[in-house]
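Continuing from the previous page of notes. For each protein in this section, the sequence appears first, followed by its structure tokens. Read the first protein now.
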Amino acid sequence: MDFLAQASAKPSVFWTTMIPFMIMAVVIYVFILRPQKVKEAAREEMLDCIKKKDKVVTNGGLHGVVLSVKETELMLLIDSSKDIRVKVERDSIASILGKEEV
């Protein structure tokens, strides 16, 4: 009889110790992983929307106007008076500021 009583007590101890870990996993997902996925999806959408004549800022702080868009790289016009052009990776774009006439 004692064996049956001990066997029935073990699952409740197991669930009692597992509940805090389950709660921590849910909290980590809700407050860390999910917002990070949403932020990354928004960034990918921003990078996909880059087109000619958009004014952009790179992660290095360069401001320029997009002259051409290729699959993985962009050609930026940094200074129109001196015709300074820079080729950058698409992933190095930090933000899109707006449109500007070239």
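Done with the first. The second protein uses the same format. Note its length before scrolling.
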Amino acid sequence: MALISIPTIFICAFISMVTASVAMGVVALNDRRESAAGYWFLCFLLGAIAPLVVSVRSIFPEHIVLLAATHSVISFSAYMLFWAGFRAFSNQAVPKWPIWLTPTVWLAIYLLWPQLRHDTYLQIALHGGITGAITLLSAYTLYGNPLNRRLPMAFPLLVFLVAHVVVIFAQVVFALTNPSPSVVTHINNALWKLFMLESFIHTVFVAISCVILIKDRSEEQHRIASETDALTGISNRRAFVKDTERLLEDANDSAALAIIDVDHFKLINDQYGHQAGDHALIKFAHLVSEKLPPSALFGRLGGEEFGIYLPQSADQAEQTLELLRQHVAARSIQFHNVEIKLTVSIGMATVEKAGNGFDLLVAAADCALYIAKESGRDKLVVFSPAQRLHKIVEKDGEKRIGLADDRVSRKISRGTPLSAAD
């Protein structure tokens, strides 16, 4: 243990805390919305000051009581700011009173309890118990938020915080069962040196982890923004296609895809304006979202066309979509004292009938949607293979009629007499 130098550990801890404080300060200045960086800036700044206070205790032994109290107040304030940073990072309200109340209560106990002032190991035990509890609270605040759990750095930091608490409580037990007078001014005990080394490693890892957490969340926010429809707040086409293709890899025949088209949407824009149309799409997305099962995927494919993926049997999916169609038709949307009624046409295709592939399902659902719109709209049509032939024949007939009309028009323009075939 002779290789472990306590002054060196203090110097390294000071440098790492100053570096982390500067990094957090830069983040806080560049992005005022990242309030967690502000709390962590103050936390690491106080974390840099705390080792300096401890390091001068051997220089001014006559002020050991004052320096010990000062170190504890700074340390508790740093721990509480660390917790506050996780509250802010999790988009939770940050109550200010625990930040100042914790060090204040400690200082009051320290001044009013003579034994605590003169028993260094009792200070270590009580200090460790409180900081360990705050660290556990910080870990819970971090990992208790489902959004935080999606960040790559969240779990490693959780493990490290819990491991640090274990070391703190081991330190408390050791302080109460194996005291040594050498702790009053400087630490020579080998085990205490290990405790100090772990504390230094912890501060460095935590400082780096907090910086990475902010980076991870920034990347996550950009990813979500790139996969979210700006108007309705649901998945955009890119995200819907990607997520559906991923689920189809493990899907069996019990899966369906539907394409929903808002009927006569152009009339809404023409009669009430595009702002009303946008409002109608937003409300429509809400109406659909509240009726879909949690396992469903819902996305905007473009314009007034939406997609739904349902990992259900054909009967269940048909029932879900029919209830959804009725739900939309039964509701009205208010916009500037104008009541807008919506209906939808739905084309649904199952993996069993169309095949296990996104393009196959979309083509089949689109075929069923075409029939739903052609047969009067406000309907749900389930795809069957025969519909493809029907659509081909219908389109071919339209093409032939178009060609015949063109031929008649050309004859009339040339003054050529029409035959019976025309």
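What the second structure shows: The radius of gyration is 34 Å. Residues 332 and 341 are 5 Å apart (CA to CA). We return to this in next week's lecture.
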